[in-house]
């Protein structure tokens, strides 16, 4: 079976690591877009030289409180995504070193990536305690997927 020229019967798990990186960066791109669309005419421009300074510029940008919150949530989603990439990459590497089946590796990669998409969307748009709990569940789904790969790899190697 082929999808976009990729043979899905083959191990595609290593390809998922750059996809995970792109998913971690996506909320930041959204935050930049939101800032530029919502800021007042007198607000500072997006500072590409000192991007972390932009968080302090949000209040000076005279964005609506809802937009400010969405901006901050998007930046937090990005930070969480980048904090999780080492765990995910290590799990994929462990699974490959243990020679887990392509089906296991591809399924784990798909579940992890789907959980990160859901996490980003929920985190950026969330305004309720219930959805905060759903966001935590999506986060834990990704983490437990990584742990599952570590356990399966350990069982196969030892």
TrEMBL record:
It holds the Pfam family MAPEG. It comes from the Eukaryota. It is found in: Membrane. One of its GO terms (cellular component) is membrane. InterPro entries: MAPEG-like_dom_sf, Membr-assoc_MAPEG. The chain crosses the membrane at residues 12-31. Keywords: Membrane, Transmembrane, Transmembrane helix. The keyword Transmembrane applies. SUPFAM superfamilies: MAPEG domain-like. This is Glutathione S-transferase. It comes from Kwoniella newhampshirensis. The lineage of its organism: Eukaryota, Fungi, Dikarya, Basidiomycota, Agaricomycotina.
């Amino acid at each position: 079976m082929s999808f976009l020229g990729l043979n899905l019967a083959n191990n595609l798990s290593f390809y998922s690591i750059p996809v995970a990186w792109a998913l971690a960066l996506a909320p930041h791109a959204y935050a930049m877009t939101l800032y530029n669309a919502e800021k007042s005419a007198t607000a500072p421009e997006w500072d590409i030289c000192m991007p972390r300074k932009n968080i302090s510029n949000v209040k000076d940008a005279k964005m609506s409180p809802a937009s400010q919150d969405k901006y901050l949530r998007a930046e937090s989603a990005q930070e969480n995504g980048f904090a999780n990439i080492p765990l995910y990459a290590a799990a994929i590497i462990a699974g490959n070193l243990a020679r887990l089946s392509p089906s296991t590796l591809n399924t784990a990669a798909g579940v992890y990536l789907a959980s990160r998409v859901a996490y980003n969307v929920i985190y950026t748009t969330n305004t309720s305690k219930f959805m905060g709990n759903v966001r935590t569940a999506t986060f834990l789904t990704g983490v437990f997927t990584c742990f599952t790969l570590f356990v399966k790899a350990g069982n196969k190697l030892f």
